Amino acid sequence: MIKKNGGPYINRYDLPGGSMDEGEPLENTAIREIAEETGLRVTDSHQLGTVSFRFPWKYQKYTWNEHICVFNLIEEYQGEVKATVTQFIGQDSLGAVWIPLSKLSISNSSPLVLKAKEYLLTERFETKDTEYPHWQVLS
């Protein structure tokens, strides 16, 4: 998990991720973002699927957010998670931590973390989109 310091998941646990750089393949984006936000180097992974999370969030002229997410299963990695990571413009991770699944809930985690938890507990990845009509951004 990463400790989020911005956006609608601020002050919650989240999964590493972010925007693609120009010309960057999707798989490379996931590997780069994981390295930037956790310090881990992914050596083997595969895509599980894509889902969307909808929730209220007042941002610029918008009142709802639709977060489209591509999930990857990390099979192998090298390195150790970094409790703090290099900060730069656009960096929304304060660092990474290992958290027991039993400690993850809607009150402290992003929808992405809850989806990953569901997958780890059931070994099934459902591609149904999810809406959180009462989502609260923590300040």
UniProtKB/TrEMBL annotation:
Any one Gene Ontology molecular-function term assigned to this protein's record:
hydrolase activity
Occurrences of domain Nudix hydrolase (ranges): 1-127
State a single Pfam family of this protein. Answer: NUDIX
Q: What keywords does the record list, in alphabetical order? A: Hydrolase
Could you tell me which InterPro entries the record lists for this protein?
Answer: Nudix_hydrolase, NUDIX_hydrolase-like_dom_sf, NUDIX_hydrolase_CS, NUDIX_hydrolase_dom
What domain of life is recorded for the organism?
Bacteria
Q: Which family does it belong to?
A: Belongs to the Nudix hydrolase family.
**Signal sequence bounds:** none
**Protein name per the record:** NUDIX family hydrolase
